[in-house]
UniProtKB/TrEMBL annotation:
It comes from the Eukaryota. The lineage of its organism: Eukaryota, Sar, Stramenopiles, Ochrophyta, Pelagophyceae. Residues 342-370 are annotated as: Disordered. This is GAE domain-containing protein. GO terms for biological process: intracellular protein transport; vesicle-mediated transport. Residues 444-560 form the GAE domain. It holds the Pfam family Alpha_adaptinC2. Its main location: membrane. Gene3D superfamilies: 2.60.40.1230, Leucine-rich Repeat Variant (1.25.10.10). SMART domains: Alpha_adaptinC2. Residues 342-360 have a biased composition (Basic and acidic residues).
Length: 562
């Protein structure tokens, strides 16, 4: 078999797609059977030639195949790794987003101790132009490369650079990891604090929020390093910073429009720690903290009052312990969490793979395919799949006869959730649609259903069913914000059972004003192909408030019968 595969791989012409298809199947066969190492290298070379093809479909297949080869048999790629890296890195600059995503995943898998500096540099360059919705995943892929880092200083510089590029989009774990590495590298406290101070000072009008938080934390913990110069043999060094300049920067942060309640809390803590460690500036620190005694935020008001009480002479014995430097994190625990995040990020990345056009069902084949797209939690929780209304109805009409009557509806909806859902951290709430108000007008039936209310967000659904087609229901969702802060980047998604087809229209906006000053709406049309079964819906709500990303789930299990 090895001889036959070698002959096919060597003699097949690639001037036409038929030849490329044969070579692709040959590569799959080589990697599947127990072939010789030389034959596997030949297969990798074929995939390398595919990467040079101008056809994006062929390049995508090559990237996807190389990803599978690296994950299963990295030794086959090891010999020619550096020759392929340049071509793969070029794919990160491709206009096709699916090519860039597959190249990004493959680049991460190729990282080792000899090429980490070059590859991470390319990953950071790609991070600059990556879509905002992909930046958090890219950051989570860079973090685990720490095990190949040439030095602690390089790793800290990489994390700081990443925060300066995508600090508004990465989650809290990236900032926490940066702080964790800083506490473990005592020799670099001065370097990191000087570097973060200057970044915060230079970029404050447009600084990334995560970078701001890490910089404030370091100024509070290691601010004593700022008042002395930092020099080493590898860098030009940093000159000493005067105490008034340090306090002036923290005051500027407090006045910044970017400062959230969490940011101001960090600043108050940093001021207290500086007051307990510096030789001067205590009065200025107290004055800045005292400004928040009358703050409208209960958190800031309480924090400032308690901090000022600590500075009272009666608490002198407690003060050094209360404001002591945070102990370094346990390196073993940190590595364990890093491995868990690596597994989690790999699962999330896999949900972003391309759905190739040549694999889409057409004609009669579409009717025979199982209708899983509407209900895949992969798509609900990780992305979206656009399916035409007509195709959905055609699929549903063929599934009416195969759905068993005795299957629990909720388990039927999310039967594949355990095997396909990405590992996202969410809160799940089940809300039966109670307290329904109904009214009737000639020719149609209407009902109002409050389906969700939590943390100041309320969602109401107005159901409208026409007499012309009792299987179709028009739903208008209304979203209100009862808190005193705007809800930004609001996204609403829904999933329905297989016997229901759904069409969601774009929402009227992505920002819900505070204090009920405005609402956004989103229209949904559903068709229940089995009227004897109830309409049910699982909701996913996500939005940002106060610098935090909120993700919630809710389930509406008993819509009114209209």
């Amino acid at each position: 078999m090895n001889d036959v595969l070698a002959q096919v791989a060597t003699n097949t012409e690639t001037t036409r797609n038929a030849g490329n298809a044969i070579l692709y199947e040959c590569v799959k066969a080589i990697m599947t059977v127990e072939s010789e190492s030389g034959l596997k290298v030949l297969a990798v070379n074929i995939l390398g030639r595919f990467l040079l093809n101008r056809d994006n479909n062929i390049r995508y297949v090559a990237l996807n195949s190389l990803t599978n080869v690296v994950s299963e048999d990295i030794a086959a790629v090891q010999r020619h790794r550096m020759q392929k890296c340049a071509t793969i890195l070029d794919c990160l600059k491709d206009p096709d987003v699916s090519i860039r995503q597959r190249a990004l995943e493959l680049t991460y898998q190729l990282v080792n101790g000899s090429n980490i500096i070059e590859l991470v540099k390319e990953l950071l360059n790609y991070l600059v132009v990556a879509p905002p919705e992909h930046r958090a995943l890219i950051c989570s892929r860079v973090i685990p490369t720490r095990r190949f880092a040439p030095s602690d200083k390089w790793q800290i510089e990489t994390l700081i650079t990443m925060l300066s590029i995508a600090g508004n989009h990465c989650d809290d774990s990236i900032a926490c990891a940066t702080v964790g590495y800083l506490t473990l590298s005592e020799a670099l406290h001065g370097f990191a604090t000087h570097k973060l101070f200057r970044l915060l000072r230079d970029e404050l009008p447009r600084v990334q929020i995560a970078l701001m938080h890490v910089a404030i934390w370091c100024i509070g913990e290691f601010g004593n390093h700022l008042i002395v110069p930092y020099n080493d043999s590898l860098t030009e060094g940093y000159s000493a910073i005067q105490i008034p300049e340090v306090l002036g920067l923290l005051q500027a942060v407090l006045k910044s429009h970017l400062a959230t309640i969490l940011t101001k809390s960090y600043v108050l803590t940093a001021l207290m720690k500086l007051a307990s460690r510096l030789d001067s500036g205590q009065i200025e620190c107290q004055e800045l903290v005292k400004q928040f005694i009358t703050s409208l935020s209960l958190e800031l008001q309480q924090r400032s009052c308690e901090y000022l009480s600590l500075l009272d002479g009666s608490w002198k014995e407690v003060l050094p312990h209360a404001l002591a430097r945070m102990p370094a994190a346990d390196a073993t625990i940190l590595c364990s969490r890093q491995q868990q995040e690596e597994i989690s990020s790999h699962s999330r990345f896999s949900s972003m793979d391309r759905v190739k056009k040549d694999q889409e069902p057409q004609g009669s084949a579409a009717l025979a395919s199982p209708p899983t797209d509407l209900l895949d939690l992969d798509e609900l929780l990780g992305g979206t799949v656009e399916t035409s209304r007509e195709q959905s109805l055609a699929v549903d009409s063929h599934t009416d006869n195969v759905l068993p009557n005795d299957v629990d509806l909720l388990s039927d909806i999310f039967a594949d959730a355990s095997s396909h859902a990405p590992p996202l951290q969410m809160h799940s709430t089940e809300l039966p649609a109670s307290n329904v108000r109904t009214s009737s007008v000639p020719g149609e039936r209407v009902a109002r259903v409050p389906v969700y209310e939590k943390d100041g967000l309320s969602i109401t659904m107005d159901l409208l069913k026409s007499q012309a087609d009792i299987t179709v229901t028009d739903i208008m969702c209304t979203f209100l914000n009862h808190t005193h802060k705007d809800f930004e980047r609001f996204i609403f998604q829904a999933a329905v059972p297989r016997y229901v087809s759904m069409e969601m229209r774009p929402a009227s906006g992505t920002k819900i004003p505070a204090n009920n000053l405005g609402a956004i709406t989103q229209a949904i049309t559903v068709k229940n192909t089995i009227p004897s079964k109830p309409l049910m819906m699982r909701l996913k709500i996500q939005y940002a408030v106060g610098g935090r990303q909120i993700i919630e789930q809710a389930q509406v299990s008993s819509f009114p019968v209209l």
